[in-house]
Specification:
The structure is a single chain. The chain is of the alpha/beta class. 44% of the residues lie in helices and 15% in strands. It is built from 13 helices and nine strands. Strands 1, 2, 3, 4, 5, 6, 7, 8 and 9 form a nine-stranded mixed beta sheet that branches. Strand 3, helix 2 and strand 4 form a beta-alpha-beta unit. The chain starts with 12 loop residues before the first strand and ends in a 35-residue tail after the last helix. The relative contact order is 0.18.
């Protein structure tokens, strides 16, 4: 095995017990790729977890990082266990961590997240019910940039719908948990997906009859985009890889338990508006089509504007509609790219080829030991 593909294991978990002396209550897995600006805060938050009945194993999977993240994890050994692999993407990194984890519950978060001090305890609460196979946590944000505040309100709109569902079919790995036995039996994440591999896993588990539950008190502070180009790029990527996830689970096109009807409608209205505006120089009737489509798009934002105005104020509420027009266009473009790749007979470039998820990195200089791949886990 090449040096870059050999996992370094620095051992440990939260609390006085070490990896060699105690079975962890649960294992937290953090995929890491060039995460120097955020990984330290994430790990500090994980090491400060409270209200737990046992030790917490923390595993960082370095996905071929090239930045200066190494000292961050190195300074936290042996309380943080580090695995290393060549760059294969976040899904493969999470699978590697899950294969090596010793906890009965696998917790997932990202290197750009800061879990609240009681996050792990709150994530474990739904598993008191033996019928629960997985749990979804929620986001907060302390960013002051207007776009980041809009994104947080966007998540809140979606999560409000999710909390009204009797059965969930959605979880995102910034704040998620699964029973290890269920996760491994399902084969883990599909590493060939460059994004939304967490959504696809949730779809797959729900289709198999597993119960996913919300953990609304489990919160992580998530780092949202602050620039429109970053936001659009993220949505383009989600659309591109989401095409494969939804085509693999067509029942979720009608209802994925989280996406509001307004967003689905906007995905139809945005390209219609763009087409009408493009035809306007040649067809006067296109003006009426553009005007009516724009009005319909604005009205579709009312479920967002009202609650957001009350919670976050007028600036965040009124900034939403233009941002969501960009969202719809970027998602539509991504869906088109994903569908084209699907028709060509494959999912497109893998995450390792440049579409890794928004997670990040570390390394220790500890002796390298092999960690098993998920597929080889008993």
């Amino acid at each position: 095995m090449a040096a870059a593909d050999r996992p370094a294991d620095s051992g440990g978990q939260v609390g006085a017990a070490t990896a060699a002396t105690a079975v962890p209550l649960a294992s937290v897995i953090v995929p890491a790729f060039n995460a120097a600006p955020t990984l330290g805060l994430c790990l500090s938050a994980l090491l400060d977890q409270r209200e737990l009945d046992g030790p917490l194993e923390i595993i960082v999977v370095d996905d071929g990082s090239t930045d200066g993240s190494a000292p961050l994890a190195q300074a936290l050994a042996p309380r943080v266990r580090l695995l290393r692999q060549a760059h294969r993407g976040a899904g493969a990194a999470r699978n590697r961590g899950a294969a090596a984890a010793r906890g009965a519950i696998l917790l997932f978060t990202d290197a750009d997240c800061r879990p609240a001090p009681d996050w792990a305890a709150r994530m474990l609460e739904p598993f008191a019910d033996p019928a629960v196979a997985g749990a979804k946590g929620f986001f907060t944000s302390d960013q002051s940039a207007l776009l980041a505040r809009v994104v947080q309100a966007e998540y809140e709109e979606k999560d409000a719908r999710l909390l009204r569902q009797s059965r969930l079919a959605f979880a995102d790995t910034a704040s998620a948990a699964y029973r290890a036995v269920v996760f491994r039996a399902a084969g883990g994440f599909r590493p060939e997906l460059g994004a939304v591999e967490d959504t696809e896993l949730a779809f797959r588990l729900a289709a198999a009859g597993h119960r996913l539950a919300p953990a609304p008190r489990a919160r992580v502070a998530h780092r949202h985009p602050e620039r429109l180009r970053d936001y659009a790029r993220r949505k383009l990527r989600y659309g591109r890889w989401g095409a494969g996830a939804y085509l693999s689970h067509p029942a979720r096109m009608a209802d994925d338990s989280r996406t509001p009807w307004s967003m689905r409608l906007q995905l139809l209205l945005a390209p219609l508006l763009l087409a009408a505006l493009a035809l306007l120089p040649w067809y006067s009737a296109a003006g009426w089509t553009a005007a009516l489509t724009a009005l319909a798009f604005l009205l579709s934002n009312l479920p967002y504007v009202g609650p957001t105005w009350r919670r976050h104020g007028p600036a965040v509420a009124l900034a939403g509609p233009p941002v969501f027009l960009l969202r719809a266009l970027a998602l539509d473009a991504g869906l088109a790219l994903g569908l084209a790749a699907r028709l060509r007979g494959g999912p497109g470039r893998t995450a390792a080829a440049g579409d890794a998820a928004d997670t990040d990195a570390s390394d220790t200089g500890a002796p390298a030991v092999d960690a098993p791949d998920l597929e080889r886990r008993p």
